[in-house]
Amino acid sequence: MAQKRTILGFLGVTAFMAALFLQVLSPNLASANQITSRSLTLQAGASDGGSKPSGIVRHLFTFTVPTNGNIGSIEFKYCTTAADVAPATCVTPNGLTTTSATLTSQNGATGFSMVNTTNGDPYITRTQAVVAGPVQLSYQLSTITNPDGTSCPSSQPNCTFFVRITTYADHDLTGGIVDKGTVTASTNTQILLSGIMPESLVFCTGENINTNLGGVPDCTTANAGIIGFDRLFSPTDTAIATSQMAASTNAGSGYVITVNGTTLTSGSNTVTAMGTAAGGIHGVSQFGLNLRANTVATSTPAVGLDIAPASNGTQYRGEPYINGGTTSNYGTVDTFQYRDGDVVADSANGGAGGTDAQIYTVSYIVNVPGNQPAGTYSTTLTYICTPTF
What we know:
Radius of gyration: 40 Å
Distance between the termini: 111 Å
Helix content: under 10%
Structural class: mainly beta
Order of helices and strands: HHEEEEEEEEEEEEEEEEEEEE
Strand order of the largest sheet: 1-10-9-4-7-6
Number of domains: 2
Number of strands: 20
Number of helices: 2
Strand content: 35-45%
């Protein structure tokens, strides 16, 4: 009977010691809570896409810690498996480098600095302070080299990896685990897109040119045909007409636009081209043009529009051409001129260069003396836009 009591006593002591051993072995695991709302976003680095295998990128961790308590350090342990998936040991993904990692942003709980001495197991540290959970935290680790994908030979370079996040009470991954959780991400095949922007010039002329819904001149609306003056020629009045043209280019030295053709003629009779820039004068033989919105003046009709959109010296560079005084002047209000081959506009506003599309409105005037022979007067004008690449 005494022997039976001895055996039972031994079994009781053994059970008690086993329970005590388990309790001593894993006090942290028993108290740790699960981190929630956790994610790892792979963000682009200076030149590499966020999920590029072997890319030098940024890893943004966002998660919610549920527990009130001191947090002095947070570990980010990179593994080929999740924490609850066999094998429980952590194998660092091939090609991963975290020893150059820097902490570039921190929110929710701050004051941390980076410790990156062990590859695949960086952590951030601070003097322990209370974090009142639940609260969302986020930390951006920069200059991390992604895994190279060879940990997943069957799907390389598309390869999933895991990061085990653990918060500790003390500053050096000690003092007891507060909360823990695992996030996952994957390297992926980069999608490479390639396209060519060739040398470009868009130029059109017509009586009118409309814009599309984006405000860009639409050359498909440029209507051709004969443009008539608004009234019969008379020594007591000025006849006016307009046409439009649109231009854009990516030429590094921009464009110049010239006008080419003769003055108005009817048989052997002509209207004198205005070789010198001047205002319109009734009773004088004059044919001229400019590219401005003109005003009402004693001898000048209100005709024309300024360039649209207006030039700003960067995106829009087009402007009517003025080359000093009366030498070549198509950009002064109420001043007109016409010479075959003249430059009438260029893209030199803010320095010669490429420009988005703008619409020029060309204004034409005709004055005649009282002895101007009767007839139908006409001319064909050709505008030539020349880009320099």
